[in-house]
Structures are given as structure tokens and as C-alpha cells.
Amino acid sequence: MPDGLNRDARFRPLFERWARRVRARLALRHALTGAAAGLAIAVIAAGAAWKTRHGALRRYTAAAGALGLVAGLAWARRRRWSDGDVALYLDQRLESEEAIATAAGLRDHDDADDPARAVVLATAASALRDAGAKRVHPSVLKPVHALVPLTVAGLVAIARAPLPPAPATAVAPGTTRVQTADVAGLEKAIRLAQASARDPAQRERLDAIAKEAEKLKADLREGIEKRDAQDRIARLKDAIGEERLSLGAGEKRGGLESAASKLEESDLTRAAGKALGDHDLESLDEEMERIANAREKADRELAKKKLDEASELAKKQGAEDVAKALEDEKGAMDRRSARADALRELADGMKGAGVGGDELQTESEALDRKGSDAAARRLAESMAKALEKLTPEERKRLAEKLAEMAKKRGVASADAERLKDLADDLATPEGQKRLEDQLRDLAKEDDETEESKRQGALDDAEDGAEGTERGMGREGGEPGQGEGQQGGKPGHGQQGEGQQGEGQQGGQGQSAIPVPGAGSRGGRGSGKSDGDGRGGHGGSRDEGTGDHQGSTPLVDAHGLKSRARGPLNKAQGMPGSITTYVPGRAGATANTRGTGDLRAVGPREVEGVEQSDVPEEYREQVRQYFQP
Amino acid sequence: MRSGALPGKTDGVMADQFEAGLRQAAEAVARLRDAIGHVVVGQSAVVNQVMWGLVAGGHVLLEGAPGLGKTLLVRTLAECLDLRFSRIQFTPDLMPSDVIGTNVLVMDPAQRAAGSMFTVQRGPIFGQVVLADEINRATPKTQSALLEAMAEHAVTIAGTRHVLEEPFFVLATENPIEMEGTYPLPEAQLDRFLLKVLVPSPSEDELVAVLARTTGRSPGAAPRVLSREGILTLRALCRDVIVAEPVARYAARLVRASDPSSPDAPEPVKRGLRYGAGVRGAQSLVLAAKAVALCEGRAHVAFQDIENVARPALRHRIIRSFEGEADGVSPDSVIDALLAAIPTRPANVDAERAKAARA
Description:
The complex is a heterodimer. Chain A contains 24 helices and 4 strands. Helix content of chain A is about 60%, strand content about 0%. Chain B is an alpha/beta fold. The radius of gyration of chain B is 22 Å and the shape is globular. The interface between A and B is medium-sized, with 32 and 34 residues.
């Protein structure tokens, strides 16, 4: 074998060995770089999985590290150094002045006998033989490889970390569930089942309202969607409101109007006529009560006559229910008149006999001044108490006085007959006791007409429904809806700060008139002059500072009246106003004409935004606001 | 190799003998360098480059200001080499025949009957170490006569071709500062020189040494350290030095990048040069690099050898552009830019080198 080949045989294994080491370390470096990149991606992916609460995916992200390792190895293979590159690298590290590169290039040299070749091979082999691993090996680690332990630690930390809490999902407006046990307001609607009905049809409607209120109450206790509850309460209120207006409604409207006009012909019954025209039978009853309890008989007769005429007119025009209500009112007036007369005569007798004291005097004057049933009842109560305390002397004197009064009235007078009976009763202690009982019964007597009671019950039911709605957290009250009692002091609604706030918000303020018995709907219960009424519901922004105790100085509010509770004229709605609910197109909203079940919407709510005169620049905002 | 002879290289010579020959060559060059150093003070770079030209078998153009020892260097070299030395002082009236010789009519009294006859009167070109002093002062015609001999190692006189005796080594000098009445060598003729060596001014220490030597007693003649055979052996060994492919490619890339139209040309080349080095430039580069390797006792060429000879081998082969000349761009600065721009090794290996350097 030529000497050159021998030297080649010595050089080649040395070179191959070093080349393998160098390539292996380079491949390892590439693999580590790939693994670092893959693990970095894995950490990011694991972080994303953690953030998005895909906890199960976190462990699989580590596969990215393995993929990076494989990719690094593939890259290392693709970028594998040739022998020439390795030789140049070794020359550079060993400072052998390209001896190794020259020797490596001689591999296929066909001039094996060239002495220069043998010398170069020997020089290169010598350089490789003397080479140390530390001097030759390329560094495996790079700064980026520090990511490997860091990312592995990060992966472990992320894999073991508890998932973040789920983000709060947006709740569609009105879909929050409301659950409340405080449904006292609905109880008033439920009590409509016990209220008297004008006819079987009304009985059926009132029962239906009570049944629906009962069902709603049960559902609210269980919990239902707020929008559902609001919808049902609105329906309930509509049904109650419709029932309040049912007297003389529809074809009977003419009879009602004629009767009201008839009553308004006289100054005495004008207010009553207006109340009838407004379907305000409570006010009508109160007006008649005032006339009936008045001392002037002529007025009573005139009023009864007007009632007769009005009733007759209503009957002629087919408004049987109106006619019946007016007849009932007339009957109540008779009873009230008789009671008031009897009480006054007995009171006069007692005063004449010098018994009864100041209290009797005060109550008697109160009856003359107010003319209310309540005043009459208090007078009766007062007289019963006075009779109870009578000494035999006083009783005798009182009987004599009554007999004297009967004599003065004449034999044929009914009043004289009644006075004579009273005198006879007082002749014996048993009679006196009987008279006391009669007076106490009189104090409890209720002469209110059925229509008035019914309407009162309906008002209570409507107020109760509204209170329930507000209790669910409805934002803002409806304008003019009875914030007068917010001060908590009947007859002095203005003392409540919330009342003023409501006045600004609602922009009406009729309910703010601080008059007992003439307050808003909310303050209806406080309208009694005796000041024992209870404050109604407050608005959601009620910041009133009143004590809500229900006691207040009496205010003479005779003749003043609030229109806040005035019923709406159920005629054709004004353009643009929404007076009731009608079935809407399926799925229609304020913005779109839909196909789903929207149940009931106002006639103008459907495509209301498009039909409105909202400027174009604001239209989109309005659309979004009404977006379901 | 004290006698000046090196073992000849023949087929089948054992590698050990070749290795010994390399060692002896390095030693001979070192001795030659020392011998010249006895006479010439300093200028070690110039001496080295002249020896590279001698070993590579090329000619050398020395450029430097007057009085820097160019002629002394050449004379000393000739003395050390045991070769015939001739000197031609180029002047504007110098004729080609003054350089190469001519036929002259000779009248031999002994053969009067035969009449007179022509005989060749050989010119100074027939020396072995020829000093062409101030070559740019002669006319182009005379210059071309010299350059023909340099290329062909032969001259033609009256139709007869005369081969010059080997080794034939021309060292030309030129003065860059006296341009009046000179005939700058054309680029094609400059290309015939293997190396162009710039002779710098001596340093202060060197100048002191020069003063000491030249103003006192004469130091005496330089010793002869290398025979004609020894030089021929060196030249043969130089041709045997191996150039690895990456090194050859590096030389090729350098030369190609010196062409301003090349995409690899760096910006200074594109801006400062009109023409780059050609094939002969690449050959000179590698041959000179082989000489460097041999002078250092190596049988292979390193990248550093290429870089070492790049300036003397290329500086006279690149032609500056008008812009380059106007900007005062020197050929050496362009070559430096080339060396800086062209990497020796592939990028991946270079990156590893950078990492190792950082480490």
C-alpha cells in the first residue's frame, strides 16, 4: 500500500470520529432549540386552554414540545454539515491552517503517490490526534435553551393550576328570575273573588282576575322570569282597570252620559254627575253621602229627584247597570238621611236636656260640617257612651225633653213619632239599654253602595298589583302614580322628599296635593279626614323622611279633589299613545317584524322605532336599545 | 541544504523525504532572509514578498520613492542566490536592443578571407536576476521588449529565438513621485508581474540602523545561501503544494468580487473600480499563496496565505474608476474591503466560529 494511502487510513477514522461528534452535538443543539420552541408554544397553548377553561386540553399541549424536538432533529438532518464544513470547523478550532480541510478534500484524490498528499494527511491526522474534546466540541447549549426547564415548569404549573372562574354571561334583559314572598299586594286582587258582582258575567271576570292573581302569587313564590312576571302583572292591571270602567261601558255609554248630564244640571249634584261621568262611583257615593247627611232636607229631596231622573234616563237608554247603581245610591241616601235625622234629633234632645257634654257637641258639629257617614257613626258612638253614663235623673230629663220636642213637631209628623218612641224608650232602664245598643249598631252600620264597594275593591287590587310590580325592582315609577303618601302622613304627602322627586320624574304632580281624601291613587287610603288611613306604596326612589305612622293633623279638604285617580276615557286612543295591549304580530318587536310568539304588544310598539320621527343619527342607538 | 541544493522531487519519493524537503525549503528561505538582512535594514515585508515571487517563479515590481533601498535589495538578493545579475537602467532613449541584445558584425583577422560575420551580442536580459531599474522611464517599445522576455523566458534576436537560462527572475522598480517624462506601464503589461511590492519608508529605528551601516565601514558582501538548483527545487516544491477546494474557492470568490459588475462585489469595489482582476490575478493569488505556504514549511495552502498575498498579487491588476481616483481610493483599501466582505468559510461554519469567539 502506498505511503499516502497508509496515512489516509490513519487520518480518515480520526476525522470520521470527530465529524460524528461534531454533527451529533449540532443535532442535539438543533433538537434542544426545537424543543424549546415547541415547549414555548405549548406553554402559550396551555395558557390559552387554561384561560378558556379547557382544562383537559392542557396536558396535550405538552405534545408540542415533542413535536418541536422532532422538528429540531429534522432541521438538523436537513442542515447536516458536509465533510468539508466539518473539516473547516475543525481547522478553525484546532488552528491547523486548513490542513484538515485539505486532507478531507484529498479523499478521492487519485494521485495516491503524491508525497505532498501524504504530508498533508499526516499533518491533519496529527492535528486531530492532539485535539481535545473540550477544544473541538461545539457548544450544545444556547441561551434560548434556558426556555426548556422554564417552559416545562410553566407547563406543570399551568396543568396543576385550578381553572379560572367562568366569566359571567350576559343576561338577556328581563330574564333574571324574581322570587318574592312579599306578595301582599296580590292578596288585594285575590280578594276580588269575595267582592260582590254586578252580574254573573262580572262575577266570572272577577273570579278570573282573582284566580290569575292567585296563580301569579304562587309563581312568584316559586320564582319566575322578571319579564314574565311584569307581563302578567300588566295583564292583571289591565283586567282590573277594564273592570273598573265596565259600568256603562260600550253600548251603555249613552245611558251613563245622559245620567251624568242629568245630575250635572243642578249645582247640588254637579260633582256627583261628574264623578259618574268619570266612572268614579266612590266619589259619587261620597258626594251623595255628604248630601244625605246634610241638615237641609230640601237638598236631599232635590238630590233624590235628580237621582231618580238620572236613573230613569239611563234605563231608557239601556244602561240598566247605571240605572241600578243610581237607584242603589238613592236607597243608600234614604237610609243615611233617616239615620242622620234621628241622630240629630237625639243629639238635640240630649243637648236640650243638658246631657252628653262637650264631646257630643263636637261630634254633632262635625256631622253638620262634614256630612259623612263616618261623622254620623262617631256621633252615634258618642251618644251611646253618653247614654251609658246617664243618671236616672238625667234619663228622666232627657225623656221629658224628647217628649216635649215630639209635641212641638205635631201629631202627624214622622219625626214627632220617632221622638216619642225615643222618649218612651228612655222611660225605663231596659229601654235605655236598648237605645244604647241601637246607637252602637248605628255606629257600625255601613251604608256604602255595592258599586262603590266594588270599585274600592278594584282600586285596592290595582294598587296591590302595582305594589307587587315595584317590589320586583322595577326601575322608576309610572308618572303620577300616587307618590303622595310617600311622606307617610296621610293628608301631608308633601312632607315626603320622595314625593317631590316623583313630581319631577313623572312630571304630573297631581298626587302631591296635600289634601286628605283627595290624594293620588297611591295615597288613596289616607284620604279620610279622620287621618287613620294607611300610606300607600312608595316609589323605588323613595327617600322620604316621614315616619309613615299615618297620623296627621286634620286638614279641611272639603271640596278639593284630585284627578289623579280619574279613570281614562276608554275611547279611541290618541295617536301615538298606548292605552292597552293588543296581540302583536308574532315575534314582532319595536324594531323588527318577527315570526315568534311575542304574546301581546302595544299597537304602536310594533316597528315603533321605524315609524317614529327619531333623527337618523340616533336611530341606530334607539334600535339597539330596543333590541330584544 | 547548506550547499544550496535541495533533494529533487521524483515519482515515488517517499513522503518523509518530501516532508524533509519542506523543512529544508523553509530553512533555506529563512537563511536567505537572514542573509539579506545583513545588508538591507528592515523592510522585512518587502523581503518576504520578493522571496515569495522568487519561489513562485514570478516577477516582482517594486514601487517606492527613491532611496528606499530597492536597488540594494535586488543586488543583495542576487548576491545571495549565486545567480548572474544584470541591471538595466531604463531611460527614455533606451532601445529594445539595449535590453535584449543585437547582432553585430564581427571581423575576425584570422579569417579575413572568410570576411566579416554577424554574431549575437546578448543584452542584459540574459542575466538570471535582472534589475529593471525605473522601468517606467523607458518608452513602451523598450518596456514591451522586456515584458516579452518576462512572459516567454526567451528573446528573439534577428529571427533567432534564444531561451533564457532558468531561473529567470525580473525585479523592476518604478518611482511613483516623478511622473514627468515617464511612460506608465499599461495594465496588460503590469499583469505580467506576479507581485507588485510597495516599498515603504523605514521606521525611525530602521533609519537609525541604515545610518549606522551606510556611514561607517562597509559591511561586506552578503553570503551566498541558495544555488540555482536550490531555487529550481523550491519552485518545483511550490507547484506541489496542495490547495484545498474551499481555499481555491475563496481565492476565486475574491477575484470575482473584485469585478464591479459582479453581484458579490462589495460597495467600495462597485464605487471605486472600473475593472477587477482577471484569471491571471486568480492564478497569481494561488501561486503566491503556495509560495507563502512553502516558505512556512507547509504542503497546503491556508486561507491566511491567500489573505497575505492578496494585496501584492492584486493591487496592480485592478483599475480604479474615475470616481475612485477622484476620491483618492487606493487599490489596497479596495482589496481590504474585499477581504472584509468575502467570508473565508461557509456561513454555518463562520457562525460557529463567531460563537466560539464570543464564548
